[in-house]
Write a structure and sequence with these properties.
By secondary structure, this protein is α+β, with helices and mostly antiparallel strands. It is built from eleven helices and eleven strands. The strands form three sheets. A five-stranded mixed β-sheet has the order 6-8-9-11-10. A four-stranded antiparallel β-sheet has the order 2-1-4-3, with helices on one face. The protein has a two-stranded antiparallel sheet with strand order 5-7. Helices cover about 55% and strands about 15% of the residues. It has helices at about 15, 35-95, 100-115, 165-205, 225-275, 280-305, 315-325, 345-365, 395-400, 410-415, 420-430; strands at about 115-125, 130, 140-145, 150-160, 310-315, 335, 340-345, 370-375, 380-385, 435-440, 445-455. α6 (about 280-305) packs parallel to α11 and α7 crosses α8 (about 345-365). It has a domain at about 310-465: Heat Shock Protein 90 (2-Layer Sandwich), CATH 3.30.565.
């Protein structure tokens, strides 16, 4: 339920910041915050997944390299030793039977049958003495047969079954094994990163205003992730309860404040009709209006804190005209420099921002000269030209700070201004995807305004109310 100011029909203060039925809570962030958070969450998840996958893969490759190196060092030396023993044995056997063709041929046949080795014998001149059925086209070793320092011939042998495998035949199975292990590592990395994905999701939702968001970690997950998820859920529950309590307190305080303010205003009107001191009554009336304005600004600020924006399709020209009327200014002061002034935004907050700009011009610039609507790319700009002395050097940024008051703003000090008006304008502009600006005009005076995105802030483009 929304509550209007008790005298909003006269001054209009209550109409700009009076709603305090807070919707889903969440701090309003600068433009594209949700997009950046989404990108950040994706980056964190992808980075963790990639790092786990990379470390698993490097571990597998390192293990494979160590195993291959050890096998090469140990197996290679053993093979060479065994090969030398075989060469020595074969050389001695053929040396014994070299001069006996029958025994020599029998030895060739026995070696071929038992060892599955192709053998070819040649004499010292290179003539073939004996060979197996399948000759050695590319002998793997050529062993000379020597007796008493005299070369009798040579034995050419080619291994058929137990020769060492080629590097390709060794590397290929190892590569396939590493690939299978790497795929398994990818699945394991995804499984390990899944709890972090859930925590990132819940954290992003909590930051965007969904206080009921909780990290849903599978029961089988234990260790640090489970502890972190429990701590996060406990924190989220406490925040949700605290914000709900603050929301209720804000609604109660705003109601309790405005009820006596309304009574005071009615009493001043009765006293005025009864012949009371006009000067005193005017002073009391100004104080009441100032208090009501302060309540309105605090309520509008709380709407931003609680994320209670209601974006809808609006007519910027109608908003500006209404703001001029509520400030007691003529609609002729409105200068619309765009063909279409439509936008998506929160009417209450934008109205409050326009009212604060006009009030700032009244207090610090001796009155508003014009309220302009301009087009700046994808943004609409609302700015107020005043008739004051302009801005001091460096003041264009300071005036938007909370509690800042212009040195020459005597009327503002007399009225008890707290310097929250333009700070609130800046927050409203940021909530609508825009910025604030202030500059001196060439002809004198200052121009203060803000911009809003025509299509509303990025997180509300898909849900404007009609």
């Amino acid at each position: 339920m929304k509550r209007g100011g008790p005298w909003g029909h006269k001054r209009g203060w209550g109409a700009w910041g009076d709603a305090h039925d807070c919707g889903p809570w969440g701090h309003r962030h600068p433009p594209h915050h949700s997009w950046r958070m989404g990108r950040l969450g994706s980056f964190v998840r992808a980075r963790l997944h990639r790092r786990l996958f990379m470390w698993f893969g490097l571990s597998i490759l390192a293990t494979g390299a160590v195993v291959a190196t050890v096998m090469s060092l140990v197996g290679g030396g053993t093979w060479k030793q065994e090969s030398e023993r075989v060469r020595t044995f074969v050389g001695h056997r053929f040396e014994e039977v070299w001069d006996e063709p029958a025994r020599r041929d029998a030895l060739v046949a026995s070696i071929e049958k038992d060892l599955q080795v192709g053998v070819e014998l040649r004499d010292a001149s290179g003539a073939v003495l004996a060979r197996t059925e399948e000759p050695c086209r590319r002998p793997e070793f050529n062993l000379p047969v020597i007796r008493d320092g005299i070369t009798l011939g040579s034995v050419r042998a080619c291994y058929a079954s137990f020769r060492p495998k080629s590097p390709l035949r060794m590397v290929l199975p190892l590569a396939l094994s590493c690939m299978v292990l790497w795929l398994a590592a990818g699945k394991l990395a995804r499984r390990l990163a899944r709890p972090m994905d859930e925590l990132v999701r819940a954290t992003r939702e909590l930051g965007s205003g969904r206080l009921d968001s909780r990290a849903d970690i599978a029961p089988h997950v234990t260790g640090e992730f489970a502890v972190l998820a429990d701590a996060f859920n406990d924190m989220a529950g406490r925040i949700e309860k605290q914000v709900a309590d603050q929301r209720e307190l804000l609604a109660a305080v705003s109601h309790e404040l405005r009820t006596p303010l309304a009574r005071m205003r009615v009493l001043t009107e009765l006293l005025r009709d009864g012949g009371g001191n006009p000067k005193t009554l005017d002073q009391v009336d100004r104080e009441v209006v100032e208090l009501d304005a302060l309540v309105g600004e605090l309520l509008a600020s709380s709407r931003l804190d609680f994320g209670q924006l209601t974006p809808r399709v609006l007519d910027g020209q109608a908003l500006a005209t209404q703001a001029l009327e509520r400030a007691g200014l003529s609609s002729s002061a409105l200068d619309v420099e765009v063909e279409h002034a439509g936008l998506v935004g929160d009417a209450t907050l934008l109205g409050r921002a326009l009212a604060n700009l006009l009030e700032n011009a009244r207090k610090h610039g001796t009155g508003a000269q014009a309220l302009r609507i301009q087009e700046r790319g994808e943004h609409l700009a609302f700015c107020v030209d005043d008739r004051g002395p302009g801005l001091q050097p460096g003041e264009d940024a300071r005036i938007f700070r909370p509690f800042y008051r212009k040195e020459h703003g005597t009327e503002a000090r007399e009225a008890g201004s707290l310097g929250l008006g333009l700070a609130l304008v800046q927050r409203i502009a940021h909530a609508h995807g825009g910025e604030v600006f202030a500059e001196n005009r060439p002809g004198g005076g200052a121009r203060v305004g803000f911009t809003v995105r025509k299509n509303g802030p990025p997180d509300s483009e898909s849900r404007p109310a009609a």
